[in-house]
Amino acid sequence: MTTEETVRRLREVGMKTSRETLREGLAQRVFPFGDCVLTDKSPVCYIYRPLLERWIAERFTEGGGGA
């Protein structure tokens, strides 16, 4: 998934975020559903859809204890 697709998906479930926040969260290991490689030119992010969907389900769905 791209960062744009991921931000759009997170916004669908009610999370206010941006591409920059997503990249920083991945780089700092706050978000466990992807990896971010910091390069000289720009960060390269890898987002894993199954891990993202599991993370969303745990936080933003009924019974998941989320918002």
Outline:
With 67 residues, this protein is an alpha+beta fold. It has three helices and two strands, in the order ααββα.
Element order: H for helix, E for strand: HHEEH
- Total domain count: 1
Q: What about the largest sheet?
A: 2 strands, antiparallel
Report how far apart the termini are: 24 Å
Q: Specify the helix fraction band.
A: 40-55%
Contiguous runs where pLDDT drops below 50 for at least 5 residues: none
Annotation field: number of helices: 3
- Average pLDDT figure: 91
Radius of gyration: 12 Å
Oligomerization state: single chain
Spatial order of strands in the largest sheet:
1-2
* Beta strand %: 5-15%
Q: Name the overall outline.
A: globular
Count of individual beta strands = 2
Structure class = alpha+beta
Characteristic key phrases:
single chain; 67 residues; alpha+beta; two-stranded antiparallel sheet; globular
Structural description of this entry:
The chain has one domain (3-60). 46% of the residues lie in helices and 12% in strands. A two-stranded antiparallel sheet has the order 1-2. The longest helix has 12 residues, at 49-60. The radius of gyration is 12 Å and the shape is globular. The model has no long low-confidence stretch (mean pLDDT 91). It has 67 residues and is α+β, with helices and mostly antiparallel strands.
